[in-house]
Amino acid sequence: GENVEQHPSTLSVQEGDSAVIKCTYSDSASNYFPWYKQELGKGPQLIIDIRSNVGEKKDQRIAVTLNKTAKHFSLHITETQPEDSAVYFCAASNDYKLSFGAGTTVTVRA
Amino acid sequence: AAGVIQSPRHLIKEKRETATLKCYPIPRHDTVYWYQQGPGQDPQFLISFYEKMQSDKGSIPDRFSAQQFSDYHSELNMSSLELGDSALYFCASSLGQGIGSPLHFGNGTRLTVT
To answer: Cα torsion at A14, A59, A86, A90 (round to 10°)?
Structure first.
């Protein structure tokens, strides 16, 4: 099955700085890579996703890049704000069943 | 916009008891997924249903069963509860299956087994 590794496990950034989270996957057949943000007491919320035929996707302050050859993808958050503090999960899928990374706890310091 | 509704939000049960978790998908979504998330862990896939039929099965114990009803809501039935079943249980829904159908999660049911 698919194995997704996510780094770092924790990330502390100064407000206004950028945050980068990296993930690798094992199954070369995976073709869909969503990112979820989970706040305390809530379910994971889809924030951005990318498909294997695209190398980069951007939505305001959030961007995701995908390198299929190296089997890794990254989440970039620019101009971080306190409300960006949460746990972020990457995931990979080659059908519809998601395999999640272990999560990154992001703390934005004011 | 309407989201995935899960009930109850919190549930406390004793060992060997049974529990039923309910999930109401986003309107018109025909696919439901159940995930289990232990403390500090990532969500683990349990089972999914598409058009009221089981479509895939993950690491779901034999003590658990689930079904999707004609109105597309789903229920996860858990019997002979063990301490290790204490976790957050998330339901997600999508319109159809495949990479064009992003999963939308509910806010979960926190199950505590004492």
So the answer is: -120
